[in-house]
Amino acid sequence: LLLAVDRLSTRLGQIFAWAIVVLTALITWEVFSRYALNTPHDWALNVQIMLYGTLFMMAGAYTLSKNGHVRGDVLYGFFAPRTQAGIDLLLYIVFFLPGIVALTYAGWTYANEALAIREKTFSATPLPLYPFKFIIPFAGGMLLLQGIVEVIRCLICLRTGAWPQRLHDVEELEKVILEQHAGEGAKP
Q: Structure pTM?
């Protein structure tokens, strides 16, 4: 079950990561259009903001599934896994879960209000804004689901003394190069 949710978060993260390619192409085209062709588009900035917001929101569950969120681990890294799990569990229950539940609930209300009035951007070429606002509760729901998985991981670690396995997606190139060099140095 844990790995299935990890797979879902990873797959959605990989799919929504393509928004950066679309965003880069759109910005490149808009800069070329504005400065070379002298034909700027008033809707381009709104689309860029919506694409970036979508990318940012949908990266949350993916990053959580990879244990990649920033934490102040000045001391945390020195603790035993059970102590880490206890700290994480406390923080998930006290801060994360209530915050994500509130985000998802408020986002759902916010998106439905936008849908009810068919909210659009305020520009010469208005774009529908309400579909974008539904990303908020969707991303919140994915974060909530992944957060529940992380709570279960903490409980397993508290019981067994070891963190359960995670899916591996990509490695930082820097880490791969260091491992290759370490392997070459070990050979006679």
A: 0.80
